[in-house]
Design brief:
Blueprint (H helix, E strand, L loop, with lengths): L2 H8 L19 H7 L8 H10 L1 H6 L4 H7 L2 H8 L2 H19 L3 H6 L9 E4 L15 H16 L3 E6 L7 E4 L5 E4 L11 E2 L9 E6 L3 E12 L2 E7 L7 H4 L10 H26 L6 E5 L5 H12 L4 H10 L1 E4 L10 E3 H8 E2 L4 E2 L7 H5 L9 E3 H8 L2 E4 L2 H10 L15 E2 L6 H4 L5 H7 L19 H29 L19 E6 L15 H9 L5 E6 L7 H15 L7 E4 L4 H10 L2 E4 L11 H7 L3 E5 L2 H6 L6 E3 L7 H25 L8 H14 L5 H24 L3 H15 L4 E7 L9 E9 L8 E10 L5 E8 L1 E3 L4 E7 L7 E8 L19
Helix pairs in contact: 2-7, 9-28, 11-12, 12-13, 13-28, 13-29, 20-23, 23-24
Length: 863
């Protein structure tokens, strides 16, 4: 012990001052800094392993953050690494791999080379991005989806720039009280400690944009960037010295604060985001984005900002809206109205008003009332961000096929008088990023099953039997063991945080069993996801867990929103059940669910449980991650499972309709117990002489090869490119032609004014004796008044006649003019003998009109 240390024990000595000690990374290790600041390391296991090998304990304690790791290392350790030949060899390999990755010619360039589509570039707005635990700007599914979107865009070379917020505290970390009540803990994150860098101008100053707030005050927004492989994520923050305190706290917490705080954040994201991404493009010498994608309604104000920009360039308000709509995509993730951002109309007016003028601050030439109408809904006191997104986005989608159906029905009032099936909201089913979510031991399996093809562009894995049952079972056992080890450590740490003593926690070393059937369940804790459905009959659940021949164990994780008392109560109910001595070795709650923990849980679970109230699950991507690692699906037919459901590959819990909530939950929980006890557990424990569950492994192989490539985020991004980004880019180029928006608005006005003269004056079947196998000719007499045949589309509509005379399962067939142009006809192929109802309708038609429902104009024959 030094003399100074001895003295410190005797006297209390106050510091005279303090000094910050920093380290310098040796030149030989300089490539580490390049690797650390490109987030591609987060989905390359070899790069993560390289960082972890530097100091495993420090890697864990810094939140797996390579920037903070390097800054925290002792100089002696850096010096040792600089002379470690094996480490330098691995560093060289990783550095070269990143260089090669960034230089490769990728899918998007190959698809669009030589075509105008190559000019398309996309700005992708999201309130959160879950790329890595080291960048805490996400809370859950929406953010992880956005992160996987960016990673897959990088792998595919899609020209996407992400725009999000840089939160001072991010989302909360979760601990539990002794009573099992969720506790939220927030920690400040210094941008200097994150894998991001400032966006700087030619003079080396950090890029700033400003956003006008009430009372003539402008908030200054600083811009950082995270490099995500080949693509860039811009992050906007207001916690800078130029802002007063109330502005500095705008970007403090994700989904924190009251409604006014949320409006401020969404103005910074939408308005500041448009200005930032355009300024960044100018600084970087790259084209400005041509397509703007709003991932949920949080960025709806981006469309209002762009209206103002188009008007400043000479467009009218109407033509500016047309130009914005043509180049905007709106994705809704919300299957229930309660999940939509809706603000008090007076609050929204206050933040969009140009002080004292009655005009809009973002569109100064336009009366505020006209702009507010873009977010109007049935309740005149509310401003609806989803309605704003749909009114300003000509391209819209849900995130699974069933969710598309739900969304069309939910928003059909915006497109009256058209039926829900014609509401212009399509669907692109979510996916998860393969390299991120497939655990290392499963990668050889995936590569073998896919035939070692490029996983970013492979739609089918055809080699189902590439890996033997015994080897696949060995790998699955290893993943389950990893999960059990991590769960034991997490439970012990959780109990210590809850106030328990080390001496009373010996039992945590033996909870769970690496050989027992393991069910995973991890969701945001909200009512419709039904965290506690499994607890409807606690005694029966306990019997299933403790079954001597076929035991089952559950690992559960999830966070409730800080303001959601109901969600917290559900979580506490699960925690209290898991605390009971009789089952605590078989059911475990894992606190502080994050990306890192998710990788272990999704890969180690044998079965992934999902039991929402149908059809309130938009997609549900956690189960997709399990499938990629050989886990099987056990779900209500909702979200993505409704689309890919196959009871040879997983199990479907029957959903109950037209009963009260209590009865529904009781019946569905009994079905859950029955399937688990009588189908899933027996199949898992049915072993051959080698101890291998052969039938279970067959199901695992089939599930992986038939489902996994279809739920990959790489497929998802390719779908976005082909079905939404490129079409929107073409629309954007068409409206970019001088005078095109004004001409389109003039066309809309002309069609609307003349529509009262459009009439279907006669409809007939011209086929004398219709026969199956032959065409059915439908003809109609149509009067267009002042319009021409180029302004409309005439359609024959055929289907079964329902009890109320409505056409069910109707199909539409475009008719063409014949003779003098007032008669339209079409030959409809009919294969099956049947009774068909038919009618004819006229709708507007224009190359910039994606759907006739946008104008709400349709004409049927008069009764």
């Amino acid at each position: 012990m030094s003399a100074f240390s001895q003295a410190a024990r005797v006297w209390r000595v106050k510091a005279y001052n303090s000094v910050n000690i920093t380290n310098v990374v040796p030149e030989a290790l300089a490539p580490l800094e390049t690797l650390a600041t490109n987030l591609r390391w987060s989905w390359r296991a070899e790069a993560e392993s390289l960082f972890e090998s530097i100091d495993p304990e420090l890697w864990s304690s810094t939140g797996r953050n390579p920037v903070l790791l390097l800054r925290s290392l002792p100089a002696s350790r850096l010096e040792a690494l600089a002379h470690d030949d094996d480490f330098l060899r691995r560093l060289k390999l990783e550095s070269e791999d990143l260089e090669n990755y960034l230089a490769q010619d990728r899918w998007f360039a190959k698809q669009t080379r030589g075509a105008e589509d190559a000019e398309t570039s996309i700005a992708y707005f999201s309130m959160e991005f879950g790329i890595t635990q080291a960048l805490p700007v996400y809370s859950g599914g929406l953010g992880v989806l956005a992160g996987d979107h960016m990673k897959s865009a990088s792998d595919l070379g899609a020209p996407i720039t992400g725009i999000g917020l840089l939160y001072t505290y991010g989302y909360f970390s979760q601990t539990l009280s002794r009573e099992g009540w969720q506790q939220e803990n927030y920690s400040a994150h210094d941008p200097a400690d994150l894998p991001i860098s400032q966006v700087v101008d030619a003079e080396g100053r950090q890029l700033r944009v400003s956003v006008a707030f009430p009372e003539g005050r402008d908030v200054q927004v600083a811009v950082w960037k995270a490099q995500v492989g080949n693509v860039t994520l811009l992050l906007l923050g207001t916690d800078i010295a130029e802002n007063p305190e109330d502005f500095r706290t705008i970007t403090d917490r994700l989904y924190g604060g009251d409604a006014e705080h949320r409006v401020k954040q969404e103005l910074v994201l939408g308005v500041g985001g448009v200005r930032a991404v355009q300024a960044y493009a100018d600084l970087a010498g790259i084209p400005r984005p041509t397509v703007f994608h709003m991932n949920e309604g949080h960025a709806g104000f981006s469309g209002v900002e762009r209206i103002g920009q188009f008007m400043a360039a000479g467009e009218t308000y109407e033509s500016a809206i047309a130009a914005v709509r043509a180049s905007t995509i709106f994705t809704t993730h919300t299957p229930v109205p309660a999940g939509i951002d809706r603000f008090d109309m007076h609050l929204a007016r206050r933040y969009l008003a140009l002080d004292g003028t009655g005009m809009c601050s973002l569109v100064p030439q336009v009366a505020l009332d006209r702009v507010m109408a873009l977010g109007a809904e049935d309740d005149p006191s509310r401003f609806n961000m989803a309605h704003l997104g749909l009114r300003l986005g000509q391209y819209a989608n849900g995130v699974a096929k069933l969710h598309g159906v739900v969304s069309r029905d939910m928003f059909k009032s915006l497109y009256a008088p058209f039926d829900a099936d014609e509401v212009p909201i399509t669907s692109v089913t979510n996916g998860v990023h393969l390299p991120t979510w497939v655990r290392g031991p499963m990668l050889p399996v995936v590569n073998a099953m896919s035939g070692n093809r490029d996983l970013s562009t492979t739609d089918e894995w055809e080699n189902e039997h590439a890996i033997g049952s015994e080897e696949l079972w060995r790998i699955r056992n290893g993943l389950r063991t990893d999960l059990v080890d991590r769960a034991r450590s997490a439970v012990k740490s959780s109990w210590l945080a809850r106030g328990a003593q080390e001496a009373e926690l010996g039992w945590t070393r033996s909870i769970l069993d690496p050989n027992v059937l393991t069910i995973g369940f991890a969701r945001r804790v909200s009512t419709y996801k039904r965290l506690t459905l499994m607890l409807q009959d606690p005694e029966r659940l306990a019997r299933i867990l403790r079954n001597e021949d076929r035991p089952v164990q559950f690992l559960i994780a999830g966070k409730a929103h800080p303001a959601d008392m109901g969600g917290k109560q559900l979580l506490q109910e699960v925690v209290r059940f898991a605390d009971e001595a009789g089952v605590r070795d078989r059911i475990v709650f894992l606190p502080d669910y994050n990306v890192t923990l998710a990788k272990y849980l999704c890969a180690g679970a044998d079965v992934w449980l999902n039991n929402p109230v149908r059809p309130q699950e938009a997609s549900g991507t956690s189960g997709m991650k399990a499938v990629m690692n050989g886990g099987l699906t056990f779900s209500i037919s909702d979200g993505w499972w409704d689309e890919f459901r196959d009871d040879e590959l997983g199990w479907t819990i029957p959903d109950v309709e037209h009963v009260d909530e209590r009865t529904r939950d009781h019946l569905e929980s009994q079905a859950l117990y029955d399937i688990l006890e009588n189908e899933i557990a027996p199949l898992f424990y049915d072993r051959d002489e080698r101890g291998v569950p052969v039938a279970w492994m067959h199901r695992v192989r089939a599930s992986m090869t038939r489902i996994a490539p279809r739920v990959a985020a790489e497929r998802m991004v390719r779908d976005y490119v082909n079905e939404l980004y490129l079409p929107a880019g073409r629309s954007a180029r068409r409206v970019a032609v001088e005078g095109a928006p004004a001409a389109y608005v003039e066309w809309i006005a002309g069609v609307s004014a003349a529509w009262h003269d459009v009439a279907v004056t006669g409809v007939r079947v011209a086929t004398a004796a219709p026969l199956a196998g032959g065409p059915l000719r439908v003809e109609a007499e149509v009067s267009l008044g002042a319009l021409s045949a180029d302004d409309v589309r005439v359609e024959a509509v055929l289907g079964r006649v329902g009890a109320l005379g409505d056409l069910e399962g109707a199909e539409r067939f475009t008719m063409t003019p014949t003779g003098d142009g007032s008669t339209y006809a079409v030959d409809v192929p009919v294969d099956v003998p049947q009774s068909l109802g038919y009618t004819v309708r006229v709708v507007p038609d224009h190359e910039l009109l994606r759907s006739p429902a946008e104008l709400g104009l349709v004409r049927f024959p008069s009764a």
